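Severity: low
Component: inverse-folding endpoint
Summary: output formatting inconsistent between runs
Steps to reproduce: submit the following structure tokens with default settings.
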């Protein structure tokens, strides 16, 4: 499946074959693809908790108001982000770059984010959102369906996955084999309402 076709055919699927299992190779391919997603200053601040354990999935389902896709999908991904990645040895992010680029950009990372908690959170959500779309498009290309989810208690889920204090949750994503298609698209806004030329009127 080509990229544009995968984007056009990706839908938020709620009903999965609970017996289907993804192989370790498939999971690694999917998550390695997610790790190619762009991030500001190449900080790679996303973190992905891939939940396959049935007992853990049931606990997270309880924290997601009983939504069946949490336990029935082949895997559940808790997309998280490290809010303090800017201060954790940022030279790592530019270790393979030309020296002149690293010397210029690495010192900028701390300066840009330090002490700016709202910006740190904004960056976490941007990075997590981009990576989440990468996961869903890649899953479709691999023959799987997916569903992004914000319907969960972030405090409870954070406790269940032992989320570090300086991290945040972004969303849940289920990935698996659909047994029932998504509804038809419920209502797309017009191109002219969404795409603005040069400036708003």
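Observed output (run 2 of 3):
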């Amino acid at each position: 499946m080509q990229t544009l076709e995968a984007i056009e055919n990706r839908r938020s699927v709620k009903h999965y074959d609970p017996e289907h299992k993804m192989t370790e190779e498939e999971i690694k391919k999917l998550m390695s693809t997610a790790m190619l997603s762009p991030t500001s200053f190449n900080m790679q601040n996303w973190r992905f908790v891939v939940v396959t354990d049935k007992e853990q999935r049931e606990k997270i389902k309880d924290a997601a108001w009983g939504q069946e896709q949490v336990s029935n999908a082949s895997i559940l991904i808790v997309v998280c982000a490290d809010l303090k990645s800017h201060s954790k040895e940022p030279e790592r992010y530019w270790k393979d770059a030309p020296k002149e680029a690293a010397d210029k950009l690495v010192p900028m990372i701390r300066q840009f984010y330090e002490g700016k908690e709202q910006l740190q959170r904004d960056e976490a959500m941007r990075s997590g959102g981009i990576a989440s779309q990468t996961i869903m498009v890649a899953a479709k290309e691999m023959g799987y369906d997916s569903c992004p989810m914000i319907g969960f208690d972030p405090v409870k889920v954070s406790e269940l996955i032992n989320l570090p204090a300086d991290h945040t949750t972004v969303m849940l994503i289920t990935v698996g084999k659909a047994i029932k298609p998504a509804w038809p698209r419920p209502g797309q806004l017009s191109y002219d309402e969404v795409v603005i030329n040069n400036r708003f009127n």
